[in-house]
């Protein structure tokens, strides 16, 4: 069965939305845990570190899955 271009675009948009939601949830979880441990709010540099570490974690999970 061949998908129409509109169906492909809809699938791509859905995948992007779901991926974004998943990453956002992971980032929020880590930020919440970090603020609970430190008892302080995060500054922009700390938030950047959290986002970077989440992306790195997802990359390493992907690499482990390949092996």
Strand content: under 5%
Can you give the helix content as a percent range?
A: over 70%
Write down the overall mean pLDDT: 87
Low-confidence stretches: none
- Number-wise, the strands total 0
Class per helix and strand makeup: mainly alpha
Overall morphology: elongated
Name the helix and strand elements from N-terminus to C-terminus, one letter apiece: HH
How far the N terminus sits from the C terminus, by CA atoms, comes to 31 Å
Radius of gyration: 17 Å
Report on the biggest sheet.
none
Helix run count: 2
Commentary on this structure:
With 67 residues, the chain is mostly helical. It is 85% helix and 0% strand. It has 2 helices and no strands. The protein has helices spanning 5-38, 44-66. The two termini are 31 Å apart.
